[in-house]
């Protein structure tokens, strides 16, 4: 069955498409339908994921999966949180890049000692059968780590170069997609979603 993937983020597409393809769910990126960006006006990951899934379902007439995610940093009282994608917007002219965001984060934590640099990624995945689906399927995954003092690794996207896995002694940008998917907030949310969709459609 065809499902539109309601994201403009290529990093997310790479991580999600692979696992969903194994479920005989045919994922169509929303770019193929020219779905325009929608304002993420929610104050929670759940609200924003529903806004994006509903918008894509409305425009394409297909069921939709959306991902709203972000980084919660304890020393910053939970920031950047739902604003993770646009964290550095206030100090950047034009498009905010992943590098702008990670640089701002490293600066904000410059005086934070190692033991207080704890953080976690959240990912909320939402599946909506159609734009007026009254019972969206909502799944949440969390991935714990710490914020390093330098960027390391070239894989992944977003804050991966500064998201440190102490057990592995690697940043999440140094993990292969397969290993990141096994551990990550997105991989965990997706495993739950796959299970729920299998039940819902069986
Ligand atoms: P869409 O709304 O089009 O899906 P977006 O990038 O705007 O794309 P979000 O609003 O959900 O998505 O912002 C999530 C941000 O959190 C993302 O841009 C990254 O900076 C960060 N992020 C989420 N998951 C991540 C991951 O696995 N690794 C690194 N950074 C991640």
Can you walk me through this structure?
With 202 residues, this protein is of the alpha/beta class. The protein has one domain (2-201): Maf protein, CATH 3.90.950.10. Helices cover 31% and strands 22% of the residues. The chain contains five helices and seven strands, in the order βαβαβαββββαα. The chain has helices at residues 10-21, 45-60, 98-108, 177-183, 185-201, and strands spanning 2-5, 26-29, 64-73, 118-128, 137-147, 163-165, 170-171. The protein has a seven-stranded mixed beta sheet. A hairpin with an 8-residue loop joins strand 4 (118-128) and strand 5 (137-147). Helix 1 crosses helix 5 and helix 4 packs across helix 5 (185-201). 38% of the residues are buried. The model has no long low-confidence stretch (mean pLDDT 95). The structure holds inosine 5'-triphosphate. The site of inosine 5'-triphosphate (ITT) has 23 residues, from strand 3 and helix 3.
Provide the residue-averaged pLDDT. 95
Number of domain units: 1
The percent of residues in helical segments reads: 25-40%
Strand order of the largest sheet: 2-1-3-4-5-6-7
Indicate the structural class.
alpha/beta
- Report how far the terminal alpha carbons are from each other: 13 Å
CATH C-level name:
Alpha Beta
The CATH architecture category equals Alpha-Beta Complex
- Number of DSSP-assigned strands: 7
